[in-house]
Every structure is written in structure tokens, then in C-alpha cells.
């Protein structure tokens, strides 16, 4: 029986970002016992972490963070030292059609984890840490200029961002009220391998492969700051180990793109990789009805994490996007599996 010096539960580890975080921790820290707690919603996929499933220091637990009794029993049994909380409903469009699902998982689920951690740690907080992985969307929308800093006021606009803002507030409140040791990070838009094809980049990669239309919301002038998912995972590792208690860190890519420019770049790269005539995929671009409450612009000032912890993105957008496209082209079966069944219903409802 191995002797581990830390037990960490990572929630949402079968999802997009979570799978990269779980892989990094399992491989980098053989002395940690890593538990991946995930209920396997439509967004959770064990194929994302198939390469580590047999590692000795790794255990998958299928379970729902909204089930308080289950969470309390699990925490009681394993007495985790650390929680890295990523499990969430994560798609803004779905939050518009079903806001309550976002309250249940993102708010109640986070509360259940906070209560369970508080209960097993029982005021003995030495070497304990609750890490909440959050989003820049809690800050609302920027105009044409300016950046979100850690002191920007919360001003969420979508049910998704309101639920994440609420959970951030509860994490902070547990820190202030009960002394629970926490860190929060607010990150910009991630992209990379294993991204579920409901989000802009993987959706459009899949549609380009299938020669389906590319539904650009509104005038396409909305702006996002894109970060390669593996760089986010590295930042999470750093903040978990070296971030200061009761602090927030913004994480971003220093990489702003208007949607339409990004989509055109993606079309160009895909035409090259697929051996299609230049300009062929751009013809698929279709402007469609805007997302209600669509935030104009997100842009992160990531100077605090850079200055205090020495983090910065390691991959340029060109490299990251190239690697991402290559991954989707090499993982056709993954893409086929996740776009069959329920995905078709979702797609018809969202884009018909
Ligand atoms: P995702 O939708 O790809 O994955 C979410 C995972 O959580 C899935 O594996 C799902 O099965 C699991 N899950 C959902 N509800 C659950 C429940 N009730 N109990 C247990 N597990 C449950 O999400 P993602 O894009 O990887 O995002 C992960 C986290 O990072 C989220 O908290 C999100 O708010 C945050 N975030 C995402 C981005 C981004 O660009 N994707 C950026 C910043 C922050
Ligand atoms: O900023 C961080 C957030 O980024 C995360 O917290 C969320 O979990 C993540 O989903 C992401 O939210 P966005 O709403 O920014 O990502 P999405 O990929 O859905 O959309 C990116 C932009 O592209 C946005 O301006 C809406 C637009 N869009 C999106 C889709 C799905 C389109 O124009 N057409 C589409 O079909």
C-alpha cells in the first residue's frame, strides 16, 4: 500500500479543463493520492482521461456534488487535504434555457463541498486548501478598452456567470466567517484538446470538418481573451501550491480576438490542414440571431499571477490553435462519440 502525503479531490475531472488538471497532478505528484469526482454529465467523458485510469495514485469516483449526503460521506471517508473544484455547468447558452440547473450544480454543489470540507477540517486548517476554479465572466462586460483586475467589481450578466459569481462569494464568505483556507482563480476563455463542441472553437472545428454552417452570433464583433488549456492547468498547479490563502488571481492569455477574426483564422488554418481550396470554409460563415445579454468584451489583466507566482502562457495562439486542430483531426472517434445522441437534440434546439 503506497504511503501518500496528500489526498486531493478534483471535481469535474472528466470535463474539458478538469481532465488536463487531473492528468497534470497524477503524473507530476506520485506522492499525492488524486480522486477525480465527477457525475459524468453530457460534458464529462472518461475517454478524456483514459491514459491515466490505471495509475496507482489515481481513483475515479462517480458522484454528484448536488447530493449533500453523498458528499459528506465521501469527505468523511477520505479526509481530503485539498479540494480543487472545477465541476460545473459551464455553457452560457445552456444557462439561458435552463438557469436552475446552473444554480443547483454551481451554487448548491459548491456549498455542499464547502460544508463537507469545513466539517472534516474542523478548524484545523494546517496544510488544507479549498481551490475554486472560476471565470472572468463574473466581472460582466468591458467596453472597448480596459482590463479586468482582481479588484474589478462583480457584475455578472448571464445565469451562468451569476451562478459562478454566487459560488465565488460563498467561497469567500466561508473564508471570512469560518477561516476556511481558500484560493479563487478567475480565468478567461480556454481552448484546446477535449473541449466539448458546444463552445465556439470546437463547435466550429467540427462544423468545418462536416462542411456545416458556422453560426456567428450578432455582428461577430464580440471579443474574448483565449488561453490554451494546458497553460491554465499549469497556473492551477502553481496557485494551488504557492498562491496565498484568501486571495484571488486572474488568469488570462494576453490574447484578445474579435470572434469574426478568430473564426476567419480558424477557417484558413482548417482549409490548409484539410487540403481544401483557400476561402472554402469562410463561405460557411452565417450571421445568426445574437445571444441574449451577450457580453461585448472580456480581457484579463494577469499581471498579479505573473508578478507573484511567475506564471505566463507558454504557448502562442498560433501554436495552440494548430495543436488543437491537429488533436480534433486525429481524434475523429472522440468527436463522433460526443456529437451523437443528445448532442443532436441540443444542436437542433440551439441553432434551428
Ligand atoms: P465542462 O463543462 O467541460 O466540464 C464540467 C465537468 O463537471 C464535467 O466533467 C461534468 O460531468 C462535471 N459535472 C457537472 N455537474 C456536476 C455535478 N453536479 N457533480 C459532479 N460533476 C459534475 O467545463 P470546463 O469548461 O472544463 O470548466 C471547468 C471549470 O472551469 C468550471 O467551473 C468553469 O466555470 C471554469 N472555467 C471554464 C472556462 C472555459 O473557458 N471553459 C474558463 C474559466 C473558468
Ligand atoms: O470567459 C470564460 C468563459 O468562457 C467560461 O467561464 C465559460 O465556461 C466558457 O464557456 C466561455 O464562455 P463564452 O460564452 O465566452 O464561450 P463560447 O465558446 O460559448 O462563446 C465564445 C464567443 O463566441 C462568445 O462571444 C459567443 C460566440 N459564439 C458562440 C457560439 C457557441 C458564436 O458566435 N456562435 C456560437 O455558436
From TrEMBL:
Residues 10-322 form the NAD(P)-binding domain. It catalyses: dTDP-alpha-D-glucose = dTDP-4-dehydro-6-deoxy-alpha-D-glucose + H2O. Its cofactor is NAD(+). Gene3D superfamilies: NAD(P)-binding Rossmann-like Domain, UDP-galactose 4-epimerase, domain 1. It is an enzyme of class 4 (lyase). The keyword NAD applies. Its EC number is 4.2.1.46. One of its GO terms (molecular function) is dTDP-glucose 4,6-dehydratase activity. Keywords: Lyase, NAD. It comes from the Bacteria. Belongs to the NAD(P)-dependent epimerase/dehydratase family. dTDP-glucose dehydratase subfamily. PANTHER family: DTDP-D-GLUCOSE 4,6-DEHYDRATASE-RELATED. This is dTDP-glucose 4,6-dehydratase. It comes from Flavobacterium macrobrachii. The lineage of its organism: Bacteria, Pseudomonadati, Bacteroidota, Flavobacteriia, Flavobacteriales.
Amino acid at each position: 500500500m503506497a504511503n501518500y502525503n496528500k489526498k486531493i479531490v478534483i471535481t469535474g475531472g472528466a470535463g474539458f479543463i478538469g481532465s488536463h488538471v487531473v492528468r497534470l497532478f497524477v503524473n507530476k505528484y506520485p506522492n499525492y493520492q488524486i480522486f477525480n469526482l465527477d457525475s459524468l454529465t453530457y460534458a464529462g467523458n472518461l475517454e478524456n482521461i483514459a491514459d491515466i485510469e490505471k495509475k496507482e495514485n489515481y481513483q475515479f469516483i462517480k458522484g454528484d456534488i448536488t447530493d449533500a449526503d453523498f458528499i459528506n460521506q465521501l469527505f468523511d471517508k477520505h479526509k481530503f487535504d485539498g479540494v480543487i473544484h472545477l465541476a460545473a455547468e459551464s455553457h452560457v447558452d445552456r444557462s439561458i434555457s435552463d438557469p436552475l440547473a446552473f444554480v443547483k450544480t454551481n451554487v448548491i454543489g459548491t456549498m455542499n463541498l464547502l460544508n463537507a470540507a469545513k466539517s472534516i477540517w474542523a478548524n484545523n486548517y494546517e496544510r488544507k486548501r479549498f481551490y475554486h476554479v472560476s471565470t472572468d465572466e463574473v466581472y460582466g462586460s468591458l467596453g472597448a478598452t480596459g482590463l479586468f483586475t482582481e479588484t474589478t467589481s462583480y457584475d455578472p450578466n448571464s445565469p451562468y456567470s451569476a451562478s459562478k459569481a454566487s459560488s465565488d462569494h460563498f467561497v469567500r464568505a466561508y473564508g471570512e466567517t469560518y477561516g476556511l483556507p481558500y484560493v479563487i482563480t478567475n480565468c478567461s476563455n480556454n481552448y484546446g484538446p477535449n473541449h466539448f463542441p458546444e463552445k465556439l472553437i470546437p463547435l466550429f472545428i467540427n462544423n468545418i470538418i462536416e462542411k456545416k454552417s458556422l453560426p456567428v452570433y450578432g455582428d461577430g464583433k464580440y471579443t474574448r481573451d483565449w488561453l490554451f488549456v494546458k497553460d491554465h492547468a499549469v497556473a492551477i498547479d502553481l496557485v494551488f501550491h504557492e498562491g496565498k490563502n484568501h486571495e484571488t488571481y486572474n488568469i488570462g492569455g494576453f490574447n484578445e480576438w474579435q470572434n469574426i477574426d478568430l473564426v476567419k483564422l480558424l477557417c484558413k488554418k482548417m482549409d490548409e490542414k484539410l487540403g481544401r481550396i483557400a476561402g472554402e470554409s469562410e463561405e460557411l460563415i452565417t450571421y445568426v440571431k445574437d445571444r441574449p445579454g451577450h457580453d461585448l468584451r472580456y480581457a484579463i489583466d494577469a499581471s498579479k499571477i505573473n508578478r507573484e507566482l511567475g506564471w505566463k502562457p507558454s504557448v502562442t495562439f498560433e501554436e495552440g490553435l494548430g495543436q488543437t486542430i491537429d488533436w480534433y483531426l486525429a481524434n475523429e472517434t472522440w468527436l463522433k462519440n460526443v456529437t451523437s445522441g443528445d448532442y443532436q437534440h441540443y444542436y437542433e434546439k440551439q441553432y434551428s
